[in-house]
């Protein structure tokens, strides 16, 4: 019988918590003018790669999503360095930031269902 709560899930949850704290408090990039939430982290089985899914809240829609992702993907070295100080892992995963558009898709489906 396989464990329902394996190590990769625990590490993914810990990474999600720590990355959101780093983006919120330690990343002081003046180009990012929007609120960023880490919605999910998927870690590979060998714990060497992590996909971090982000959603953005921007009232003014000034920042382009691609620009923010480029900025964050360029700062992964700094984020990994801060994660190494917070977490005790043998191998710190390589981080790739991705846009999470499930909220927009959910709203679109909800509007379609309300029309019918």
The second-level CATH architecture is: 2-Layer Sandwich
Q: What form results from the Cα inertia axes?
A: globular
Strand content: 15-25%
Number of helices: 4
Q: Look at the helices and sheets and give the structural class.
A: alpha+beta
**Unreliable stretches:** none
Q: What sequence of helices (H) and strands (E) makes up the elements?
A: HEEHHEH
Question: What order do the strands of the largest sheet run in, or round the barrel if closed?
Answer: 1-2-3
Fill in the CATH topology.
GMP Synthetase, Chain A, domain 3
Number of folding domains? 1
Q: What is the alpha-carbon Rg in Å?
A: 16 Å
Task: Please report the first level of CATH classification, the CATH class.
Answer: Alpha Beta
What kind of sheet is the major sheet? 3 strands, mixed
Distance between the termini: 45 Å
**Average pLDDT reading:** 89
**Helix content estimate:** 40-55%
Number of strands: 3
CATH H level: which superfamily?
K homology (KH) domain
